[in-house]
Structure formats: structure tokens, C-alpha cells
Q: What sequence folds into this?
């Protein structure tokens, strides 16, 4: 069959590329090989099946349990005999994943995209070999091909996955609460999944090789978050490099070294979450002209064009942050570019969110990055403790921090740690997308009482004009 576009990979980068191209009246097929653990073939990739969606489902359930047990008393709500059923929590999560993957299949169908389940391999001349799950092979050709093959967890040879050593997918599927849980890596996955199991009752030890906590985040935010995680009982050990782990019948023996020398830690389960790597196994045949970089990512330019004519690549398999929304926007951009329309991504305005409690979210540069750039800057900060809405919500941890340029007042970065940070950051992303100044935010009316007033006040504080907080 001849197509205008074949997309290989139906995750959050691939399926939006297919849908946008179909909206642009192109003839499109998408090939995806994902199978869930029960053997069902589904679209949606890592994000929907083993990433964003199931992790947020478990974070919600575990946070509700924590709130019910420990935070309702202050409202005068008395609860006793609270019980918790891991099986039901997992059933709810599976239901949410199913609804989401079913939704994607429906979206593809209603957009007129041909959805093929099985393996796709790019051959030379933009031919694509499709091997269905039953082994049947077909060769299709396309004017354009989008590679959206995603990423997989990094496996370290000295701590191979198996038995009680699990990856993030395994950690999302535990059917019992481990008494003692080890986590290698205090990155995004370590903090989110560590929080889930800690709230459900595990003793959680997180071993992080770096001396700096959350080195990717603004260090003011990271310090505030670390303080709360410690209070929640997450035992985060910095400067602790794990060298090996051995699965035993009853648990895992973890070897690590820190400033005080070599140590051993015994845990019931160990989650290894030390990053993810691009997945391109059996994706490219001979002579396609597509090149990989030294770290295994598919080489692309700013518009996601690979080194081969009319072959594009988007999402986790190319450079840039491994985030579902980054992949989605790249997919949509390519779906438009292929149809001869305008498409562009502002890589400087991609938000990051960590769904812990308190939540962490940011866009733009950290204070450390701005300082290193040499540009003179000003900072406005507003604590949620001074927000009426946050007080009413009994959620006063954290703050909003806004960094703007001293010369022209351009917003350079916004960093939030606190309630619904992931929702609040959207306003800052929009502001930066439109090159707003801190004064633009200062002159924008925010409803009272809302959490969004904290961003407003942080912008005012950048010019020492805060109303609801003492100006420092
Ligand atoms: P994937 O989602 O990996 O999809 C790629 C698809 O292509 C898969 O279905 C794969 O089977 C298929 N495929 C690969 N090769 C072939 C082939 N040759 N033929 C056919 N099919 C193929 N990001 C966020 O933005 N927010 C979050 O809250 C978040 N939480 C996460 C939580 C966890 C536990 C994990 C692991 C990740 C999380 N992420 C989150 C990251 C997010 O999941 C990824 O950035 C996103 O899934 C990348 O999308 P993608 O389409 O590039 O790749
Ligand atoms: P990560 O890069 O966020 O963190 C990995 C951590 O492991 C790093 O801090 C690193 O220093 C540490 N580490 C590496 N080797 C180690 C060792 N031997 N001993 C101790 N520590 C070690 O990676 P991740 O948490 O695996 O997440 C992978 C990707 O998934 C991320 O890029 C992230 O963007 C994406 N993700 C996003 C979200 C979200 O957006 N909320 C949630 C989950 C995952």
C-alpha cells in the first residue's frame, strides 16, 4: 500500500503526528508493537501504559490515603478504621490505562488513520516493512516516514532487571507493599514512585550518586522540596553511588559507596531508575541514511528532520527532554510541516513537572543558569503560606519564584514548589511563549482567592511591589 505518511511508534509523539497529518488530509498509517503484560496490543506507548498515566493514578490513590489518615482531623473530620486494598488500587489504575488506550484507538479511527499493530522497520527508499503480531509481513511505501520509537529504561549490567530488581514498569505493578524499598536514582521516577510506596507504608531508601539534590531544578526549589520529602520519611542519601545489586530469594543486596566508604543495603525490592535510553532496536534497515548520534539518539535538526530525505523523528528517540508533551508537540509540528504548513517548537518554553507532594514545576532557566549566563537579573518570590486559598486548602508548603532580566524585564524562568504547581506553571509557559515581561504579569488580573495569585505576587515581588507579602 502507498501512504503519504507512515508513523512508526504510536506513543504520545507518534499518534499526534498521525492525527495531525490526517487532519491535513494526508493518507496515514501508524504502526505500533506495544503489548501490555496480559498480551493485549494497544496504542499509547510508555506514557499511557507504563509511564505518565499509571504513575499519576497511583500518586492520586496514595495521596488520598495519606490525606484520609493524617490530614482530615484538622478539618474536624474524624475517620477511623481506614483500610487500604492494593488490589483495588491497581484495578483502578488498570481501568484508567485501558480507557486511555481505548481512547487513542478511537481517535486514530475517527481521524481516518490506518492503525497497524506489530513491528515497523524503515528500509531504504522510504519502504516500511510491517510485521503483524501474528508474523505476517507486508511492505508499504510512503512519501514521508516519522520515527517515534520512544525509549526504554537504562539497565546497568551490575544490577540487571529480574527477580526483586525492577524497572519503573515493575514498580507500577507491585501487588503488595514492600516492607523496605530501595530506589537507585533520585530523579523524577525515583521521587514519584518512591513517594507512592512510602505513602502506602514502605520504608523507602533512595540512593543518589550526585551530591546535589535534583540538580536539574532551581536549587531554591530543590532545597524546599527536599525538606518536605525528608519530613514525609523518604530517606534520600546523596553522594551514594550504587555499584551493584544482587537479587536474592528474599530481597536484594545493594552495594554502594559514599563519602564514608563502601556500604551494603538490604531491601525487599529495588527500583532501578537511572534514566532512559532511546529505543531503536530493529528500527532501521540497510541504507536508510538515518544517522544516530554518539548516545544512540536519532539525529535531527530543529524541525525534527533526520539525515534522510523526508524521514522525520520525534519524541524520546531524539534529543531534548524525555517528556510526553515535548514529543506530542514535535509530532504535531511534523504533521503540519509534511503537509506544507507552518510548524515550530520553542524548546526554551517546555515545562517540567514532578508530581510529588508538594508538586514541583518549572519553565525556563534556573537561577543558577541565569547567574552563569552573566545576565543581570531580579527575583520575586511568594510563599504559599501567604496565600489565602492555600491556607483554606491546608496546603501552604512551598513558593513561587520568578526570575526576570534586570535590563528589559523579560521573564527568564518560573519555578514553583507547592500545591498544583503543575497546573499553575501553564500561565508562566504562556507568558514566556508570548515573551511577556514580569510587568505584563503584574498588570494581569488574577481571581481571588486562587493559587494563581501566588504567581502574580511573585511577579510583583520582582520589583518589590508585592501587596500580600513583605517585600524583601
Ligand atoms: P513511547 O511512549 O516510548 O512510545 C513509543 C512506541 O513506539 C511504543 O509503543 C513502542 O512499543 C513503539 N515502537 C518502538 N519501536 C517500534 C517499532 N520498530 N515498530 C513498532 N512500534 C515500535 N512524561 C511526562 O511528560 N509526564 C509524566 O508525568 C511522565 N511520567 C512518566 C512516568 C514513568 C514511570 C515513565 C517511565 C515515564 C514518564 N514520562 C512522563 C515520560 C514519557 O512517558 C515519555 O517521554 C513519552 O512516553 C515518550 O513518548 P514517545 O512517543 O516518544 O515514546
Ligand atoms: P533521571 O535522569 O530523572 O534520574 C536518574 C538519577 O539516577 C540521576 O539523578 C542520576 O544521578 C542517578 N543515578 C544514575 N546512576 C546512578 C547510580 N549508579 N547510583 C545512584 N544514582 C544514580 O531518570 P529517571 O528518573 O529514570 O527518569 C527517566 C526519564 O523519564 C526522565 O528523563 C524524565 O524526563 C522522564 N519522566 C518524567 C516524569 C515527569 O515528567 N513527571 C516522570 C517520570 C519520568
A:
Amino acid at each position: 500500500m502507498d501512504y503519504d505518511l507512515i508513523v512508526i511508534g504510536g506513543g504520545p509523539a507518534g499518534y499526534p503526528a498521525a492525527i495531525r497529518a490526517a487532519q491535513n488530509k494526508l493518507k496515514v498509517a501508524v504502526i505500533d508493537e506495544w503489548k501490555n503484560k496480559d498480551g493485549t496490543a494497544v496504542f499509547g506507548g510508555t506514557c499511557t501504559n507504563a509511564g505518565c498515566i499509571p504513575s499519576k493514578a497511583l500518586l492520586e490513590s496514595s495521596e488520598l490515603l495519606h490525606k484520609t489518615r493524617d490530614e482530615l482531623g484538622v478539618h474536624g473530620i474524624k475517620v477511623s478504621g481506614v483500610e487500604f486494598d492494593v488490589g483495588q488500587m491497581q484495578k483502578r489504575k488498570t481501568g484508567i490505562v485501558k480507557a486511555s488506550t481505548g481512547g487513542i484507538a478511537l481517535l486514530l479511527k475517527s481521524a481516518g488513520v490506518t492503525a497497524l499493530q506489530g513491528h515497523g522497520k524503515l528500509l531504504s527508499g522510504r519502504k516500511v516493512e510491517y510485521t503483524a503480531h501474528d508474523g505476517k509481513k507486508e511492505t508499504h511505501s510512503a512519501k514521508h516516514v516519522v520515527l517515534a520509537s520512544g525509549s526504554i529504561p537504562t539497565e546497568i549490567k551490575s544490577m540487571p532487571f529480574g527477580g526483586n530488581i525492577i524497572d519503573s514498569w515493575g514498580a507500577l505493578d507491585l501487588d503488595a507493599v514492600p516492607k523496605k524499598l530501595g530506589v537507585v536514582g533520585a530523579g523524577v521516577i525515583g521521587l514519584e514512585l518512591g513517594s507512592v510506596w512510602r505513602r502506602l507504608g514502605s520504608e523507602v531508601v533512595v540512593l543518589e550518586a550526585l551530591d546535589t539534590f535534583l540538580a536539574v531544578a532551581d536549587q531554591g526549589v530543590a532545597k524546599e522540596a527536599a525538606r518536605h520529602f525528608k519530613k514525609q520519611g523518604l530517606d534520600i542519601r546523596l553522594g551514594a553511588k550504587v555499584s551493584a545489586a544482587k537479587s536474592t530469594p528474599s530481597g536484594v543486596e545493594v552495594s554502594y559507596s559514599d563519602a564514608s566508604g563502601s556500604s551494603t543495603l538490604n531491601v525487599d525490592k529495588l527500583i532501578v531508575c537511572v534514566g532512559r535510553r532511546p529505543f531503536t532496536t530493529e528500527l532501521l534497515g540497510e541504507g536508510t541514511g538515518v544517522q544516530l548520534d554518539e548516545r544512540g539518539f536519532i539525529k535531527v535538526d530543529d524541525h525534527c528532520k533526520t539525515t534522510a530525505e523526508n524521514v522525520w523523528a520525534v519524541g524520546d528517540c531524539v534529543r531534548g527532554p524525555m517528556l510526553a508533551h515535548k514529543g506530542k508537540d514535535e509530532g504535531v509540528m511534523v504533521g503540519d510541516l509534511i503537509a506544507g504548513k507552518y510548524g515550530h517548537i520553542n524548546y526554551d518554553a517546555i515545562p517540567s513537572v514532578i508530581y510529588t507532594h508538594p508538586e514541583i514545576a518549572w519553565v525556563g532557566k534556573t537561577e543558577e543558569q541565569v547567574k552563569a549566563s552573566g545576565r543581570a537579573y531580579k527575583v520575586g518570590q511568594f510563599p504559599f503560606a501567604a496565600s489565602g486559598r492555600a491556607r483554606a486548602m491546608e496546603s501552604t508548603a512551598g513558593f513561587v519564584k520568578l526570575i526576570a532580566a534586570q535590563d528589559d524585564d523579560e521573564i527568564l524562568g518560573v519555578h514553583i514548589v507547592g500545591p498544583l504547581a503543575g497546573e499553575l506553571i501553564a500561565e508562566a509557559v504562556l507568558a514566556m511563549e508570548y515573551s511577556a515581561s514580569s510587568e505584563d504579569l503584574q498588570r494581569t488580573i488574577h481571581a481571588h482567592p486562587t493559587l494563581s495569585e501566588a504567581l502574580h505576587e511573585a511577579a510583583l515581588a520582582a520589583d518589590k511591589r508585592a501587596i500580600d507579602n513583605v517585600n524583601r
